[in-house]
């Protein structure tokens, strides 16, 4: 599998889309800190460098979906996939080599954001408010999330020989998972009661009884929503980017489960796939 990894990494580091994505994440990590610093000085805001530490968790999966689809899709369209089998590479080795390289791409894109964001956090703000141990844990969890996403995109890409179809499905999957996360997070953020304070026409504030929010999710349904928010990659994106996960280590555990299940299913199906 070393030859496969060497060849795949060589392709990745020459891939224009990957290189552009690296540059984009680097610029984003730089720009957010500079804009927050300017906002603090000009508008007397109170931004901290921690505010956007993990925003990349929302953007990297979208870029990674496109990179994966085109990277693996080229193997099929160029006939490289068949050639790998002809020279004797095992199917599970081909699958795992692609997974490792795509997972590395996701982590490298994350690091490309983290490095300038962290350096400028110290230079412009004097350091971070959050404890280093917490930041390191959250960083590891975000890396695990990128690996989980990689496993889903590789599963999708390895089972289709059409580059166009694979690209469409991978991008759709990335956005569907994000929208699921947005829906779950929005539902869980609904307050149980609406504020009973109203402002009268003459500017006098009067108090009224609080009103029950019909959109509030409670009881067993709330427990299910919380579980799905932590389990699904889209829900994890928002929890990670906002640093609001109650148990970050549990998110990494769910990512491990996603990785094992999707990879196991992918290898089994790829072994049975008839390559034309």
Using brief descriptors, characterize the structure shown.
10 helices, mainly alpha, 4% strand, two-stranded antiparallel sheet, 4 strands, globular, 276 residues
Explain what you see.
By secondary structure, the protein is mainly α. It has one domain (2-272). The chain has ten helices and four strands. Strands 1-4 form a two-stranded antiparallel sheet. The protein has a two-stranded antiparallel sheet with strand order 2-3. α3 runs antiparallel to α7 and α7 (163-188) crosses α9 (233-242). It starts with a helix and ends with a helix.
Q: What structural category characterises the helix and strand content?
A: mainly alpha
* Average residue-wise pLDDT: 91
How many domains is the backbone divided into?
A: 1
Biggest β-sheet strands, sense, barrel: 2 strands, antiparallel
Low-pLDDT stretches are: none
| Total beta-strand segments | 4
The number of distinct helices, counting runs of at least 4 residues, comes to 10
Shape: globular
Question: What is the rounded Rg?
Answer: 22 Å
Name the strands of the widest sheet in spatial order.
Answer: 1-4
- Summarize the amount of helix as a percent range: over 70%
Cα end-to-end separation: 23 Å
Give the topology string: H per helix, E per strand.
Answer: HHHHHHHEEEEHHH
Beta-strand percentage range: under 5%
